[in-house]
């Protein structure tokens, strides 16, 4: 076998090719023990002591994600929010953060509320405007730029290489929520990012049956050790069976992502000319303002997520969602089934999301049937 790096398809399908050493099983077992035996002299030469700090069922999924992202190490967490908040909890009170105005609403609310009360200061900017990002930086105080690309649910694409340059020039780090891109479409570390976060509940698992999150670092450093300490001390660890299910889902990640991308592009192109649709938001369309950047920064497709703005306003959008047959009205994204959601209703007061917007997570069903269902719902 050559020394050339293996493709994501091979890495995922074989889950790195790990073999269980005792039985030679090609699927690793689920390790349920919460504690480990000490040696006679009271040491832990096995390297493991307690399941909140370490769990052998995490090892394979963490290493696979590290390889896919081109990073130095990965940590699994109990949920996407546990992974997303860990870098902020590793900062110091008084530290400053720059984040996008449109981003995952749960994290945005956390930054405005609990993080602010704890002493972190966050400025929310139009992150596709690099001058606005530069203007928001506070020399000596800004410690982290948080970027989400494509950004949920308006699907802007942010220039990660440029953001990394701005962050590093100010002595800060760039952390990227790459949940919707996945490592199949974008590798933020290769573009200069210091941390990559995934709500692993979504595409990485892909079957809507696991709650999980992950963080990958570009390097082992003091800040990464602080994040490791946050996971252990705050207890946001992933259960053994959940880790096993996550790895099982990741073995088909490239196949699922490519099919979702193909379906999303098919839907976007057909919906763009639909008489009941005001606007389609999807980076794969030439009409998207960051389409050229998306073509440079993403590979293998433009993601399985898109949004439409429905003619007739909020009432028409909600009515459309009520009439679908194949699509499921549900929160979340990245599963094999297609989901539709009226985001403004979910996010509530203060949301920057327009009331006429429907967020669509394209699954892996027949694209023509998905379009036909949406079209009849729009017509209703």
Provide the descriptors you would attach to this structure in a database record.
single chain, 380 residues, alpha/beta, Aspartate Aminotransferase, domain 2, Aspartate Aminotransferase, domain 1, 2 domains, 12 strands, 38% helix, globular
Question: Layout of SSEs?
Answer:
Blueprint: H1 8-13, H2 56-69, E1 73-77, H3 80-89, E2 96-100, H4 105-118, E3 121-125, H5 130-136, E4 142-148, H6 160-169, E5 173-177, H7 182-185, E6 195-198, E7 213-217, H8 222-234, H9 240-250, H10 253-271, E8 277-281, H11 291-297, E9 305-310, H12 313-322, E10 328-329, E11 339-342, H13 343-347, E12 357-361, H14 367-379
Parallel strand pairs: 2-3, 2-4, 4-5, 5-6, 10-11
Antiparallel strand pairs: 1-7, 6-7, 8-9, 9-12, 11-12
Helix pairs in contact: 2-9, 3-4, 3-8, 10-14, 12-14
Characterization of the model:
With 380 residues, the chain is an alpha/beta fold. It has two domains: 8-250, Type I PLP-dependent aspartate aminotransferase-like (Major domain) (Aspartate Aminotransferase, domain 2, 3-Layer(aba) Sandwich); 253-379, Aspartate Aminotransferase, domain 1 (Alpha-Beta Complex), CATH 3.90.1150.10. The protein is built from 14 helices and twelve strands. It has a seven-stranded mixed β-sheet with strand order 1-7-6-5-4-2-3, with helices on both faces. β2, α4 and β3 form a beta-alpha-beta unit. The model has no long low-confidence stretch (mean pLDDT 96).
């Amino acid at each position: 076998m050559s020394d050339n790096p293996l493709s994501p398809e091979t890495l995922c399908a074989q889950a790195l090719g790990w073999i269980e050493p005792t039985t030679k099983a090609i699927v690793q077992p689920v390790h349920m023990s919460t504690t480990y035996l000490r040696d006679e002299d009271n040491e832990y030469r096995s390297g493991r002591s307690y399941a909140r700090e370490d769990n052998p069922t995490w090892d394979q999924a963490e290493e696979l994600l590290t390889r896919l992202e081109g990073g130095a190490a990965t940590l699994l967490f109990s949920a996407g929010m546990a992974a997303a908040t860990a870098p902020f909890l590793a900062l110091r009170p008084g530290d400053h953060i720059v984040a996008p105005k449109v981003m995952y609403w749960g994290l945005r609310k956390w930054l405005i509320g609990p993080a602010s009360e704890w002493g972190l200061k966050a400025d929310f900017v139009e992150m596709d405007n690099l001058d606005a990002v530069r203007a928001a930086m506070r020399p000596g105080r800004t410690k982290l730029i948080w970027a989400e690309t494509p950004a949920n649910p308006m699907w802007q694409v942010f220039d990660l290489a440029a953001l990394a340059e701005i962050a590093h020039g100010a002595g800060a780090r760039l952390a990227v929520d790459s949940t919707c891109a996945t490592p199949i479409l974008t590798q933020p570390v290769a573009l200069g990012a210091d941390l990559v976060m995934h709500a692993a509940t979504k595409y990485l698992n892909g079957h809507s049956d696991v709650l999980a999150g992950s963080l990958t670092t570009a390097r082992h450093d003091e800040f990464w050790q602080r994040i490791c300490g946050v996971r252990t001390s705050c207890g946001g660890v992933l259960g053994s069976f959940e880790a096993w299910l996550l790895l099982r889902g990741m073995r088909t990640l490239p196949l699922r992502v490519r099919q979702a991308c193909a379906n999303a592009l098919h839907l976007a192109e057909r919906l763009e000319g639909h008489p009941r649709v005001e606007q389609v938001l999807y980076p794969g369309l030439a009409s998207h303002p960051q389409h050229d950047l998306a073509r440079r920064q993403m590979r293998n497709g433009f993601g399985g997520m898109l949004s439409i703005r429905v003619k007739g306003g909020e009432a028409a959008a909600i009515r459309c969602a009520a009439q679908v047959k194949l699509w499921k009205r549900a929160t979340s994204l990245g599963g094999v089934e297609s989901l539709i959601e009226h985001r403004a209703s979910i996010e509530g007061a203060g949301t920057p999301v327009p009331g006429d917007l429907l967020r669509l997570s394209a699954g892996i069903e027949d694209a023509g049937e998905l379009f036909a269902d949406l079209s009849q719902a729009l017509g209703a």
